[in-house]
Amino acid sequence: PLVCTMNVTVATEAVRRLLGLSLEAFEEAVAAAPAGSEGLLMLPYLTGERTPNLPHGCGALYGVTQTNLTPSNLARASVEGATLGLNYGLNRLRALGVRPREIRLTGGASRNRAWAQICADVFQAPVVGFTEQEGAALGAAIQAMWCTALHVEGEKVSIQDLADSVVKLDEASRLEPGGDAEQYRLLQQHHDSLREKLFPRVNH
Prior knowledge:
Blueprint: H1 9-19, H2 23-32, E1 41-43, E2 60-62, H3 71-95, E3 103-105, H4 113-123, E4 127-130, H5 135-152, H6 159-166, E5 169-175, H7 181-198
Parallel strand pairs: 3-4
Antiparallel strand pairs: 1-2, 4-5
């Protein structure tokens, strides 16, 4: 099974640019805010969405007060909203019997330690990155190696064996779910409920 989403770094980058923060300053802002962003909740559907099926959806910022609308809360709310969106897809897979033992992170966001911890807490599973952080590019390279071996050199090579020889985990990046996991479990319910109220006639 495959879950596709369109609004992860789309949402966080939009907020980072709005706040005028460097990548390092954005990570610091995320880490400075408490779990739950003091009630600020983002639905990050800035470009519609595939999972859930919201091709004409839009983003929403909920729970805004005069005290919680701060740069760090907004930064963290964008990260939490994107991660809760991913977890919605993961929960759909769980409903099909998929039981992840760990989650492997890749891409630029995987280098954000604060975000990685949010992932562990939201997914309620250990997370770990790769020594090669651009996993999509590495996957394409592995497929190219496999095609070359099969169609050019005539060798029957297992793509699993190729992957095992190239893909290495960065154990120093491994994080376990922490004390905020239960809060995020409840926040997921709030996130899903808000989405259903805003988009009630959608085939999710």
